[in-house]
Design goal:
Length: 331
């Protein structure tokens, strides 16, 4: 069974960031009373504001006057140890700062949701991919982490307003890779009205599709949206999703695939995915692209990076920055 794994610290050396691996904790956190000074802040959980987990907020040195908040999908670390999780997340800012936040002049929000390990893979709370079980769990601190993410976004915008910093509007730019790409893309499925544009990579050639049936086969979440109303109490906003610009990048040699993993799809969903869309991630690309095209997306691109495996490359990062820059300027 293949399981999505995106431990960015393990990839740093191959991507030219070996010097950053000496310490995961060498990015200094700034005390909140210094906000909005440029730097990395850790925001405590606030149950009264409907989020039960901390999040990191980075403020760039030169804030774009038309800035929006960039929100990243989580990091896919299987652990209930919040300290371990935060240590990993903090290390991400070694590349998030120079490669994403500073070039765009936009702040970044990164939530610290744990991903508990369970003995039954079918009941695994794959929070970092916003799986079906993650939407249906009744464990209070992990209930509806999509809504908790929106609450964190509202909290961050409120903090900027209190510091007399007015971001362009309350819509965010959403991005992620691997499981984080699932999270970002599925947030767009669930809450398109909150998201200006999405850019994802390493998603296994199979994003959640904005349709309920294909080839006379029902597509339940996370394959599609047939039962979304039952799961979350709100129907799929087809028009809002259709108007949200989306970029998906797939490496031609990226075989990392969550289809077949019980923490990601049911056995029936995996069988449907392989039978209808293809056995390998790269096989699914053209079918998926045609589905989005036929759905009438206003602005959708699915790009294949020839020769790339399951890695965040410099080319990938540059294309995400360019995509966000273009969409932020237009809308």
């Amino acid at each position: 069974m293949k399981r999505r794994s995106f431990l960015l610290s393990a990839l740093s050396a191959s991507l030219g960031f070996a010097s950053c691996q000496a310490s995961f904790a060498d990015i200094e956190l700034i005390a909140w009373d210094a906000f909005p000074k440029s730097g990395l802040f850790r925001i405590e959980p606030h149950a009264g504001k409907n989020f039960h987990w901390p999040y990191f907020l980075y403020v760039p040195k030169n804030m774009n006057p038309d800035a929006r908040l960039i929100v990243l999908g989580p990091n896919n670390l299987i652990s209930s140890n919040l300290y371990k999780l935060e240590r990993e997340l903090k290390s991400w800012f070694h590349w998030l700062i120079p490669d994403l936040s500073e070039p765009l002049g936009m702040p970044i929000l990164l939530a610290a949701f744990v991903r508990p390990k369970t003995n039954d893979a079918a009941k695994n709370l794959y929070t970092h991919a916003l799986s079906r079980s993650a939407l249906t769990t009744d464990i209070e601190p992990l209930r509806r982490i999509d809504l908790q993410t929106l609450a964190m976004i509202d909290d961050a915008y409120g903090r900027f307003r209190s510091a007399s910093i007015n971001l362009k509007d309350n819509r965010v730019l959403m991005t992620g890779y691997s499981a984080g790409a699932d999270f970002a893309q599925r947030m767009t499925v669930l809450h398109p009205e909150k998201i200006l544009a999405t850019a994802c990579g390493g998603i296994g050639g199979l994003p959640t599709l904005p349709i309920s049936f294909f080839q006379k086969t029902e597509l339940t979440y996370p394959l599609g949206v047939s039962d979304l109303g039952h799961l979350v109490g709100q129907e799929f906003d087809a028009e809002g999703f259709r108007q949200t610009p989306q970029l998906i990048i797939q490496g031609s040699k990226d075989g990392n695939d969550s289809v077949g993993s019980l923490d990601s799809y049911t056995s029936e969903q995996s069988e449907i995915a392989r039978r209808i869309f293809g056995k390998e991630p790269i096989d699914r690309i053209h079918i998926v692209s045609e589905i989005f095209k036929d759905f009438g997306m206003a602005d959708f691109e699915l790009r294949v990076h020839e020769g790339d495996g399951h890695h965040i490359t410099q080319r990938y990062r540059k294309e995400v920055v360019t995509w966000f820059h273009e969409k932020n300027a237009i809308f």
